[in-house]
């Protein structure tokens, strides 16, 4: 944060440098990042200091409330499982209500704004923990299963395992590709948008959970061999730092531009990615 706020503004001297908002926003709202409330205040994500770290606030908020679930899950399993189910249902219900009230299309772009209400999808749903928590709860449930049932203690018939993979892959495919028509001339009715937004995050969590479950208990096959290959380890250690650093690198790149430029594949590969890898190395 100190580097981004205090140093980054002096890196660029092009016409875009003064429009990046670092000087104006961060001195006013830096404290919200330290308190992990920057996904609630300022109300509009357009005024966030270091806007892309909104998810750190989500993660911290989930971490703070996790003992409310984990302690009952350890001592009174039925109560902990009930809390997970209730919180999932409540989150999906709130998300569905918000989508219906603000009439957002399914899989809205992060900063998409409804012209009638001027409400941003990011501010209303995208970065709010009460809409984001279902995958986290699915992960907690999976961790509990791992705790209760060590490796090789779960035996599945090969037909059941195969059906699990087919169902999980179908769910993952539906989460990603079912909304294609919604942005290509075949918009969904409001009911379809509501149902998708209610279920998509939970469903994606279930898909990922099955992949981890199957690989952990020996039903991953070549998927486990591929994802568990040691070659991924160095890149895996960089992903979190890449998430935190790459917008700073792009900000500096944009601030140095002396004239207008147009997005292209060549620009993306030769400039943005080379900046990223250069800084990471």
From TrEMBL:
Xref: Pfam families: Acyl_transf_3
- Spans traversing the lipid bilayer: 40-57, 69-102, 156-180, 202-222, 243-265
GO terms assigned for molecular function? acyltransferase activity, transferring groups other than amino-acyl groups
Q: Which UniProt keywords apply?
A: Membrane, Transmembrane, Transmembrane helix
**Ranges for the Acyltransferase domain?**
34-255
Under what name is this protein listed?
Nose resistant to fluoxetine protein 6
């Amino acid at each position: 944060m100190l580097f981004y706020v205090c140093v980054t503004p002096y890196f660029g001297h092009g016409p875009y440098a003064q429009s990046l908002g670092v000087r104006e926003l961060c001195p006013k709202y830096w404290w919200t990042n330290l308190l992990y409330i920057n996904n609630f205040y300022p109300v509009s994500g357009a005024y966030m200091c270091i806007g892309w770290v909104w998810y750190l606030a989500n993660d911290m908020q989930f971490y703070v409330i996790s003992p409310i679930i984990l302690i009952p899950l350890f001592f009174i399993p039925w109560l902990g499982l009930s809390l997970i189910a209730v919180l999932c249902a409540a989150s999906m219900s709130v998300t569905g209500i918000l989508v219906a009230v603000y009439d957002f299309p399914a899989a809205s772009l992060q900063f998409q704004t409804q012209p009638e209400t001027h409400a941003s999808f990011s501010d209303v749903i995208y970065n709010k923990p009460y809409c984001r928590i279902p995958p986290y709860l699915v992960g907690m449930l999976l961790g509990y299963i791992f705790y209760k049932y060590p490796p090789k203690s779960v035996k599945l018939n090969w037909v059941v395992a195969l059906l699990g993979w087919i169902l999980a892959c179908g769910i993952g495919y539906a989460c990603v590709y079912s909304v294609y028509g919604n942005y290509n001339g075949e918009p969904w009715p409001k009911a379809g948008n509501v149902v998708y937004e209610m279920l998509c995050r939970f469903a994606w969590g279930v898909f990922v959970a099955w992949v981890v479950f199957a690989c952990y208990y020996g039903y991953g096959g070549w998927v486990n061999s591929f994802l568990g290959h040691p070659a991924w380890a160095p890149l895996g250690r960089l992903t979190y730092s890449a998430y935190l650093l790459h917008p700073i690198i792009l900000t500096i790149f944009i601030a140095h531009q002396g004239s207008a430029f147009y997005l292209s594949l060549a620009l993306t590969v030769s400039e943005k990615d080379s900046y990223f890898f250069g800084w990471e190395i």
